[in-house]
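Cross-check.
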Amino acid sequence: MRDWVLQFSAVGPVGLNDQKAPGQPPRLINAHRNTPATAIAARPVAAADGVLHW
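Predicted model, tokenized:
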């Protein structure tokens, strides 16, 4: 209850809205996250990959 009163006093009613917790920063950068999606979206080449379906 104390935290709510402090937030309300500092910011007003907007301070009572839920806010994202700070948490740990992500370990993967966007380039690393997009790599698997790019590989999955690309179709396999039978001559190079030896398969026709993933």
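The mean pLDDT is 78. Residues 26-54 form one domain. Passed to J.P. for a second look.
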